[in-house]
Amino acid sequence: MKRSGLALLGCLAALSCRAADSYTLDPSHTFPSFEVRHHGVSIMRGKFNRSRGTAVLDPVGDVGRIEAVIDTASVDTGLDELNRMLQGGLFLDSTRHPEARFVSNQVEYRDGRPVLARGELTLRGVTRPVVLDIHDFTCTTHFLSRRPLCGADAHTVIRRGDFGITFGGSLIGEEVGLAIAVEGYRE
User: Fold this and answer.
1) Which fold has domain 2-186?
2) Of 38, 106, 161, 173, which alpha carbon lies 20 to 30 A from 12's?
3) CB-count exposure of residue 77 (10 Å: 0-12, 13-18, 19+)
4) Mapping DSSP to helix (H, G, I), strand (E, B) and coil, where does residue 163 land?
5) How far apart are CA 168 and CA 152, in angstroms?
């Protein structure tokens, strides 16, 4: 009962008190990105320019569902030649696996706000468990559209070998940081 009371207070603070809120991710304000150690001397960063997704959040019922889909061919490092290499069979294999997908049916809340999503990431046709840490979940009303809008910043670390990305051996870091700055409109 104490947890439900805290969730209700958090719900009030988040400007939303419906049992479950559905969101559609705004692809023009959602930025999946990655970073990986390169040759042991620097961090290489990149992003994906096309993504979509939905979320259903219910802090009162302590449940939720998140689905995010990333177009792997939209990888962007700022270098066309590197983008083509990452899209190819040695890395993302975008022709055979045009999407990376994260699906979570386990969302944890603190003070009525999502803080963790346990789910599965499918990349290159391989599915592995992943935990997203969710930071800075904030809701407001969009100043132009007057629609309810929420945003967050989510992070995780994966091991690229777990998804069959082994090219480059020790010259490319095994751990890849994934981040997604996300905004979504409440339906």
Assistant:
1) Lipocalin (2.40.128)
2) 106
3) middle
4) helix
5) 33
Regions of the chain where pLDDT drops below 70: 1-18
Alpha carbon 138 to chain centroid distance? Answer: 16
State the pTM of this model: 0.86
Query: In the structure encoding, which two tokens stand for residue 155, read together?
Result: 């992070």
Task: List, for residues 78-99, the tens digit of each pLDDT value.
Answer: 999 999 999 999 999 999 999 9
Phi/psi of residue 7, each to 5°?
A: -65, -40
152 within 8 A of 132, measured Cβ to Cβ:
no
Angstrom distance (rounded) from CA 90 to CA 179: 22
What is the predicted pLDDT for the residue at 17? 47
Q: How far apart are CA 108 and CA 118, in angstroms?
A: 8
Find out whether 81 and 46 touch, Cβ atoms under 8 Å: no
